[in-house]
Each structure stands twice: as C-alpha cells, then as structure tokens.
C-alpha cells in the first residue's frame, strides 16, 4: 500500500489500519529528514496549503506550518478567534474565497464538531482536521501512536491509559479509535462528571479511580484539564481534581516496567501532572512535539497524492 | 330518499371519516361549501349527479377520501421572517400536503402576544389555501415572566396558548397560566424542556453525542418538564397539551396521567417517529438539528408504541422553516427545526402504515378529528353541515421527496430523496379545490 484510502484526514474513527500504518511508516522517513542540517525537501513544491485556524492554537499551528515549510509547500495562514457566523461571513463563503486563490490543501482547526466534514462539501482541496471541537484531533493521535510505536516497536497489545476530560477531549477520542484499530488495549479515566453518556460503548475499560486505572499500564497519556470545566460545575476545585486525578510520582509504581508518560500539551504543571513526572526520564512529552513534525509531513505528503521520492 | 341539495360531489373513492367509522366506497355531497351528505349512489342520486356541470364532479376512483387534515403545530414565520415562510406560502404548503387546517405558533417577530398580532395573522390568512387557527403566547414576549393578556387573545380567536420554543421555566408562572386558562377552557400547549438541563446542547445526549463530541441534552430534560406540568394540571385542573414528545419516559408519564384521568393530551412528529440520533454522525446534516432532538431507537420505538396504543393523540409536523443560509453551516451553529407539511402524510404511510404499525383509519384519526378535538376546532370531520374540507389521497402513489419542488419557501427537510408511498391527489377547502396534482 502506498496510497491512503481517503483524500481527506477527518478523523480516525473510520480510518483503517492500513492507512494508519502507512502514515506511521512514512513518518519514519520524514523524522530522518528533520534531523538533517538542511531540514527541507522539495516534495510539495508548487502546492499551496491554507492553515485555517478558527480557534486559538499555538503548537498545532506552528507544527503544521513547519511541516509544510519543510516540504517546500507555499502557505497562507488564516486565523481568527471569532466564529465566522459572528463575523457575518459564513464558513462556506470564507473558504470558497480562499479556494478561489487556488488552494490545494486546507488544514482546519474549528470549534464545531464536523466542521472539516462540512468543508469537504465546500471546496475541492484535501482537508486535514487539526481539531474539531470535542470530536477528533487525528494528527495528535497519530503522533502519539508514532511515539509509542517508536519506543515499543509495536502498538498491538500495549495497555494505554488516557486520563482527563473524556467528555470534551478530541485527543482522547482520536487516540482511542486509532489505538483500538491498531490493536492496543485502551482504558479511560476521569471524573464521572467528565465521562460522557454511554461511554462504555467505546468498548474499553473506564475508571474513575486513577490508582486502579494505572495498574498494569504501559503508557499513560494525560490530558490538560481546563479551568472552565470547574466553572461549569463539573468538578468542585482544581485542588480536588489534582488530589484525585493528578499524576504524581508515588502513583507511578503501579505502572508496568518501562512505562511511558505522555501529554499533548499545554501542560498545567502541578494540576493534572506533577513537574517531577512531566520531566522524568519516562516522559516523552517533548519527543511527541518533535514527532508531530514528521507525522504531519507524512500526512500532508500522502494526501497530496505526489508520487515523487520523499527525500 | 328525501332529496339532498348539492352543487358538487366527490365520487368513486373510499371514504374514511374516523368520527363515523366510515370505510367504504361512498359519494360525498357538497352544498355551498358544506358537507351535505355521504351516500351510496342510488340510481336516482346518480341521475341527479349527472346533471351537475362536469367540473363539479370530482372523480376519486381508487383514492381515499378523508376529512381535510389538521396540523396543530406549525410555524408560519410571518411576521418577521417572511423570507422563510409567509402565512400564504405556509398555507399553500399545507394544501399541497393535504392539510386544510393548521395552528400557527406565536414565536414570530414580534410575538403573537397581543390582539393586533392575532388579527394580523388572521387577516393574512383570509384568502389563503388553508384555515389558520392562531395559538397565542402564554407570557408576554414569550419570556416566561408575566402572563400575556390571554383573555384578549381568546376574545379575538386564539384557540390555545403556548410559549413554544421555550419552556415556561418558572413553575409559579406556569401554575398561574394554567389556572387562568381555565376561565376560557383553552388548553395550554407546552414545549417541555428543562432548559437548565439542555443549555448549550445541540442533539440528544447518548453514545452518539459521546462519539461526535457534540453537547447533548438528556431525555430527562423533557421528562422532568412533563412531570411538572402533569402535577400542575392535577393541581389546577387545566387542560394541557404536550407538544412533540420524544422520549420513552415521557410517553410513560403521559400514559399514567391519562389513566389517572387528567386532562392531558400530546402529539408526536413524523421525525421523532422515524429518525434517530444515529443519523447525525453520518454527514452532520444540519437539517437533522431539531428541538426536541432526535432520540435513541428505544425512544423512537416507545413513541411509536404510544401512538399505537392511543397515549399519543395526534400527529403534528412542527413545521419549522429556516432559510438555506441559516442551515448551510457547521452543525452546532444551525438553528433547530425542520419543515414537514408536505412530507407528513407520505412519511406516515411509508414508515407506519406500510409497516403495519398503524391502520389508515387510525392514521387519519390522528391527523383529523383527534387534533381538532384537542383544540375544539370546528374541522376534521365529514359530518353533515361541516365545512367541506376534504383531502383526497392517492394511497399507493410512489414518489421521491424533492425539496426544490416544495411550495414552502424553505427547504430544510432531512427527508430529501426519501421514497414515500402516498401522496395528496386533491385538497378541497370549503368546497373549493385549493390543490390538485
């Protein structure tokens, strides 16, 4: 297989194992490129990519931008923190205007679940979901899987625990589906108020007790907890969240040997994860960021349909 | 047979008039826009009919002839959003869908919370293709704070009150509205939704909302609202009508209330009888965004069961037009609502009658005499002396829903492309053919 089954990357729920494997394998090649002195290849020369960010984002936007630059694509950035509806121009009109400038691919971050799907009906460009509300964030999950696979040489059979705001986390959804497709054994943990309705239908273990959840786990992927959830009454205080769900050093003993700590960032040090754990030798948090480059380069390359040699 | 005077007939069709239990071939005699009789044609009658001008003899062979259909839950967007629907266009859509009487909801801009507003709509409906009965607001500006001048509204013809779109959150206000409504013996129609539980939500809360990361409203938001209103009806003795019920528990609550003998009625929409929340994740089709939201299969099945056992009195479309621009957007940005006047009959046939869940007689009852009785409307029957509002149905007509052919000014239906199996042949309003196909 050298081609993806879809011309868009909207999410991992329906992405087949062969596509994920192809992306991860291709990312291996690109991860070698970004270690070079000259971190640039001509692969996407002449291709124009728009980064449509309807939500504030720092690392995902920078990561995509760098990936695009290193592939020699031409880039335009469109960022706004107000929704198109409030601005008075519809999302369709905005993107059709942009596409009229001859855009080949669009990377989209948007607060509405399904917005990337909507864009596939508005424009011909390849659409890459860079996070749609609480729905999916497929490139984050792919880079997480890439990082795990690099460390363990496999995904199948790994016990992976995703901790945090399960209800609102797009990173959790994409990780869950991607990892399940790849044969990993996924478990979820979070406060019961942040476990969405009928969560058991995801077909994985679900915990509200972190210590129990950590038992026998290879990888713990900790999610940022947002203060606004407390304001919405979903948990009483940050202090109590940290007491119940904060990953601290004394909790790590329950994990398997050679365990891994991950976090998609940005980190609230001392809230969902202690500094000691975040900075420990088992933490791969910065490697995740580096790997994000290679994975996004792979996704862009594969979706572009370019047949040239990668590097 | 004493000779009956008539100037128009509908012959050859199978007549279903639920009130009288008719179900056989008969000829309907109309005189001066009113029903003059339903007769089996004798040789003399036949001779008499043959003297009529040809255009006064409607051939309904192979068709069903039923009282003009009644839809007690329709949003005409006039005044305020005449781009989405006007009184006239909504009535045209009604006629095309077989409805001769419709009740319009007061959440227009401005609201129908004054005599002037009621009269405005009535005036617009004067020459329209359907009868429009106006439902007034419960509270001023539908804000749930102070009662509207309900006596004034009733005086000029409002047939019921509702704050549809909003639930009257404050139980004290609702209690007073119910007590007050008793003076006029009008029902209080309720959009049952506890808005503390539903704030911010755009679909049903279930595994589907969990999958899609869309905020969901739990079905208890409806159940709690309905239980409160049932309790208040028990306290006040008021007639209440629960609109568009959508959950298993609501059906059960109303079933129990009816057994107790409370004055509670309710309606279900075709979409809650047919669709579930599983549709949403397929394409994020904004036409599936509706309030109350499409629920789980167990809820849908319970609503069907409630319709079959009589817990649910009637079928109503909750026809809610929205402009194409407003619906052409991200799922959670779209306003809730879908249109239904032109698809209700075909959907009920294809999804309930064809599946053996409902008989034609029951279906017609729930779209004619039952809704008419809930609001004491003088329609929904072929009784002698009644207005000659008649719908002739082609009962096995196969057709495909094509929104661009709708008479409604809006196109927001999730049933685009559905293959349906019954269609209106002619719609007659007061002896005048207002629609034919």
Explain how this protein is built:
The complex is a heterodimer of chains A (311) and B (437). With 311 residues, chain A is of the alpha/beta class. Chain A folds into two domains: 17-136 and 290-304, Rossmann fold (3-Layer(aba) Sandwich); 138-288, Aspartate/ornithine carbamoyltransferase (Rossmann fold, 3-Layer(aba) Sandwich). Chain A has helices at 17-33, 59-70, 84-87, 91-99, 115-120, 138-152, 170-181, 210-214, 227-231, 238-245, 275-278, 285-304, and strands at 48-53, 74-79, 105-110, 126-132, 159-163, 185-189, 205-207, 219-222, 260-262. In chain A, helix 1 crosses helix 12. The longest helix of chain A has 20 residues, at 285-304. Chain B has a single domain, classed as TIM Barrel, CATH 3.20.20. Chain B has an eight-stranded parallel beta sheet. The A-B interface holds A 13, 83, 85, 90-92, 110, 112-115, 117-118, 132-136, 167-168, 170, 173, 196-199, 201-202 and B 205-207, 209-214, 216, 218, 283-284, 325, 328-333.
Question: Quick recap of the structure?
Answer:
The complex is a heterodimer of chains A (311) and B (437). With 311 residues, chain A is α/β, with parallel strands linked by helices.
Descriptive terms for the model:
A: about 300 residues; alpha/beta; Rossmann fold; five-stranded parallel beta sheet; four-stranded parallel beta sheet; 9 strands; B: alpha/beta; TIM Barrel; five-stranded mixed beta sheet; 21 strands
- In CATH, the homologous superfamily of the largest domain in chain A goes by the name Aspartate/ornithine carbamoyltransferase
Number of helices of chain A: 12
Q: How many structural domains of chain A? A: 2
For the record, the CATH class of chain B is Alpha Beta
Overall CATH class of the largest domain in chain A: Alpha Beta
From the 3D coordinates, which CATH architecture of the largest domain in chain A would you assign? 3-Layer(aba) Sandwich
Q: Measured on Cα atoms, how large is the radius of gyration of chain B?
A: 21 Å
State the fourth-level CATH superfamily of chain B: Metal-dependent hydrolases
Q: Shape of chain B from CA axes?
A: globular
Strand content of chain B: 15-25%
How helical, in percent, are the residues of chain B?
Answer: 25-40%
Mean pLDDT of chain A: 94
Please tally the β strands of chain A and state the result: 9
The CATH topology of chain B, please?
TIM Barrel
Number of helices of chain B: 16
| CATH architect. name of chain B | Alpha-Beta Barrel
**How would you sum up the global shape of chain A?**
globular
Largest beta sheet of chain B, briefly?
8 strands, parallel
Strand numbers in spatial order across the main sheet of chain A = 7-6-5-8-9
How many individual domains of chain B?
1
Rg of chain A is: 19 Å
